[in-house]
Amino acid sequence: MTEKTDPLATPTHLRAFYHLLTNTLITSVINFTMWFAITFYVYLETKSVFAVSLIAGLYLVATASTGIWFGSLVDHHKKKTMMIVSNIASLFLYITSFAIYQSAEPGAFKDPASVSLWALVVTLMLGVIAGNIRGIAMPTLVTILIPESKRDKANGLVGTASGVSFLVTSVISGFLVAAGGMLYALLLGLGILVVSLIHLFLVSVPEKGIAHLEGAPKKIDLKGTYKIVRGVPGLMALILFSTFNNFLGGVFMALMDAYGLSLVSVQVWGLLWGVLSTGFIIGGLVIAKVGLGKNPVRALLLSNIVLWAVSIIFPLQASIILLAGGMFIYMCLIPYIEASEQTILQKVVPFERQGRVFGFAQSVEQAASPLTAFLIGPIAQFIFIPFMTTGFGVQAIGSWFGTGPDRGMALVFIIAAVIGLIATVIAFRSKQYKQLSKRYAEGHGDDSSPPALDQPVQEGLVQ
Asked: Tens place of pLDDT for every residue, the chain, 463 residues?
């Protein structure tokens, strides 16, 4: 097979990439703000760990169940068009959420079983979920706009944008909730989404067409997507590994806010997450500067080893300093894990299938987390918290580990992290790791190329 050239990004491609990255940053700020705010708000109003974990579980179920569909939409339409659709859907759902919030009776949100509370939660959640279309479209746009040799760095910049959005969100969401419940968060969200939508209409994306492997593409074509994934040695193993990690990660998603809010106030917790999010930015900027190395598969697994080791250490004592230090390292590593997986998929999967494969990976990887999130709330509430409050754990390890509800949640974190570390070490020694590393080094072996990069162009990205 003739070796393909690696075209370089034109100024037009780079300009489009940076505009889309900025727009994605703005929209991510809003979606993260809504998500942080409703989680904080529900816990502060109801004081129910179970309610918070249920919210996390509902979100993950929705993410898992829509990923393949969203991926098909991205593959079968212009990427910018789908970003616009995503924005409009989120805007409509946030307007509906605002109406629900304003029309609720006083005190309606203090009852964890309140219909008004869950109507608000579900509507807001759907607005955030609609934003996931952008999360699938953005890496396919990296494939279109950025040459292969620089995609790992571009993915690092995408991770940096996510970190910036986390920082801004974390700082403002706690203060917004403390100052006015969900009212100020909703008003800010509606205003910025309108600005983001106008900006998106003005961005010119050099998308020359819609590429398809099929003559008449199906709407979802799960069978064909699964065949592509199975056809790349080690790729299914990577997706399953990420699925297992997300199963464990659901523990942290379900309990972290309750754990943090047991140590500090909501204002301090939101501000702390803003500071910690600089780790996400730092990690993304480092990738943008130096890349991921010759083997992103190895980078992904090494990052997981460090991540799980840190997650064993920070819950050992009820210390906000330990928690902050551990989560800062955690945040620095997340861009490496996400950029590694995106870079692998962008190289080994044909462009025509990337939306569906990214969506398939999202659905499969997120499928385990809802189970964890749904289970871990009741397990923590009725087993581990009593175990470390009045149960045997108080006598067994309470003298050095500490006692109380926060110590019960910390014990859950440690158990999950130990399992994650063992699983990563096993993955490092597997034949699938060697197969995928070899396949990445060889390339995807597909002669198709993105519609916008079908001619020689000039140098342009971060050196």
From this structure: 333 434 445 677 788 888 888 898 888 888 888 888 888 888 888 877 778 777 877 877 787 778 778 888 887 888 888 899 999 999 999 999 999 999 888 788 888 888 888 999 999 999 999 988 888 888 888 878 888 778 888 887 877 776 677 667 766 877 888 888 888 889 998 999 999 999 998 888 876 655 444 444 455 566 777 777 887 888 888 888 888 887 777 788 778 888 998 898 877 887 887 788 788 788 888 888 888 888 899 999 999 999 999 999 999 999 999 999 999 998 889 888 888 888 888 888 877 777 778 777 767 766 666 666 667 777 888 899 999 998 899 999 999 999 998 999 999 999 999 999 999 999 999 999 988 998 888 865 444 445 544 443 333 344 3
Residue 54, C-beta contacts closer than 8 angstroms, at least 6 positions apart: 373, 374, 377
Q: What residues does each domain of the chain span?
A: 11-205+228-445
Whether the predicted model's global pTM rises above the 0.85 cut = no
Instruction: Give the burial class of 235: count Cβ atoms within 10 A of its Cβ; 0-12 exposed, 13-18 middle, 19 or more buried.
Output: buried
Residue 456: is it exposed, middle or buried by C-beta count within 10 angstroms (0-12/13-18/19+)?
Answer: exposed
CA distances from 48 to 56, 109, 354 (A): 13, 12, 40
Which amino acid appears at position 219 of this protein? K
Q: What per-residue string of b and e applies to 247-267 under the rule 16 or more CB within 10 Å gives b?
A: bbbbbbbbbbbbbbbbebebe
Structure tokens that stand for 329 in this block: 């390292």
- What DSSP line would sit under 305-364, residue for residue? HHHHHHHHHGGGSS-HHHHHHHHHHHHHHHHHHHHHHHHHHHHHS-GGGHHHHHHHHHHH
Answer whether CATH 3.60.21.10 is correct for domain 11-205+228-445. Answer: no
Helix spans in 104-209 (H)? 115-130, 132-145, 151-180, 183-202
- Contact status, residue 151 vs residue 444, Cβ threshold 8 Å: no
